[in-house]
Amino acid sequence: MYAQQFFRALALPSAIGLAALLSACGGGGGASAGSGTLQVSLTDAPSCGFDQVNVTVSKVRVHQSATATETDSGWQDITLNPARKINLLTLTNGVLQDLGKTTLPAGHYTQVRLVLAPNSSTAPVANSVVAEGSTTEIALVTPSAVQTGIKLNHEFDVAADAQVDLVLDFDACKSIVSRGNGSYSLKPVISVIPQITSGGISGFLPAGLTKPVVSAQQNGVVVKSTTPDTSGSFNLSPLPASSTGYVVVITADGRTTAAITGVPVTTGTTTPVSTSTAPITLATSAMRTISGIATPTTAQATVRSTQTYASGGPKVEVAFKAADLTSGAYAMSVPVAAPLLGKFGTLPITLAADASLAGKYVLEASATGFATQTFNADVGTADVTKDFALVP
């Protein structure tokens, strides 16, 4: 796949991976003898409604004390000189950008901060978006933490004479939030995946689908998502290895949803769920809109549409939207037709419609520090409007 303010909540392996990632970025007092090597790459999930999502990484800082402030001594920095501006949308569908290697004395570390370059009044803009079909670069409003570093408190150990290969996986779609009047805020949603314990899922969709998205989910939570290339080929990697497997969920405008359960991921291997000669096909479907207002706006709520298949089938996320930071408004498009469900096995995988779910969704509105609210929405005959008043 959440941390609503800056990062979606990380699974334990990701937290350990992030710690290890930054562990190699500098040195720390009191470290044991020897040092380790870190190889870092960057990848991204698809973005909603943008041709570019740019972030500029300036510095990574690590410290052995979880309570150290940005002015305390003992910080060890890795500085990108010059700061590197990266269009995250060039890194979808399994593409990785190498960020290089670094070393850090072996030992125990407890704090990591990621520092982004601030936007200035003069070009070029450090952190920005370009809307679909536009050429105008819009500066992102960034949190104050870009100056002192986005703080991540995770304890980690660096082993001597070993290399750690990690991938920072941004979710650009969930990291960009509308502020109204054509402006946007950056609220980074990121996970960290250690490649040594990861694999992947690959497959094909028919070429020419409108806004297709493929995601790997567990318990209704998106772990990773991507978009296929122009041929319909997709690659969800890296993914943490999982003995219980993933649910692969496929959505596209004007098509029903499909889900494939029990897709295994083994370290160092890629599991195919379809082939170029037998791509996963989605039935056509009318689309309807679920919209409303989530308040208070200071909660910075997110709303998602989920479905839970019959007979003990999986819960999946079909659509997601962060409420506008100024108005609290949200809107998402969902299919009316019955979703398809299949079980991983011999290819091609057979998909069958779950008629009980045609047009039926459960909305979940949530925000950090507020109780999650749910609502049963039926778009079978009309669009649905639902407002949420969140309560701490």
Kindly list the characteristics that best describe this protein.
single chain, 2 domains, 53% strand, mainly beta, 392 residues, disordered N terminus, 3 helices, Immunoglobulin-like, eight-stranded mixed β-sheet, six-stranded mixed β-sheet
Care to describe what's here?
The protein has 392 residues and is mainly beta. The two termini are 25 Å apart. Strands 2, 3, 5, 6, 7, 8, 10 and 11 form an eight-stranded mixed sheet that branches. It folds into two domains: 12-188, no CATH class; 198-389, Immunoglobulin-like (Sandwich). 5% of the residues lie in helices and 53% in strands.
Q: In a nutshell, what does this entry contain?
A:
The chain has helices at 12-23, 145-148, 172-175; strands at residues 35-45, 50-63, 76-87, 97-105, 107-116, 128-131, 138-141, 150-158, 163-171, 176-180, 183-186, 190-194, 198-204, 210-218, 221-226, 233-240, 242-253, 258-265, 270-272, 287-295, 302-308, 315-322, 329-335, 340-343, 352-353, 360-367, 370-378, 384-385, 388-389. The chain has 392 residues and is mainly β.
What's the helical proportion of residues? under 10%
As a percent range, the share of strand residues is: over 45%
CATH superfamily of the largest domain: Carboxypeptidase-like, regulatory domain
Major sheet details: 8 strands, mixed
Mean pLDDT across all amino acids? 85
Radius of gyration: 21 Å
Q: Which class do the helix and strand fractions yield?
A: mainly beta
Oligomer: single chain
Number of folding domains?
Answer: 2
Give the SSE layout.
Layout: H1 12-23, E1 35-45, E2 50-63, E3 76-87, E4 97-105, E5 107-116, E6 128-131, E7 138-141, H2 145-148, E8 150-158, E9 163-171, H3 172-175, E10 176-180, E11 183-186, E12 190-194, E13 198-204, E14 210-218, E15 221-226, E16 233-240, E17 242-253, E18 258-265, E19 270-272, E20 287-295, E21 302-308, E22 315-322, E23 329-335, E24 340-343, E25 352-353, E26 360-367, E27 370-378, E28 384-385, E29 388-389
Parallel strand pairs: 1-9, 7-11, 13-19, 18-24, 20-28, 20-29
Antiparallel strand pairs: 1-4, 2-3, 2-5, 2-6, 5-8, 6-7, 9-12, 10-11, 13-16, 14-15, 14-17, 17-18, 20-23, 21-22, 21-26, 24-25, 26-27
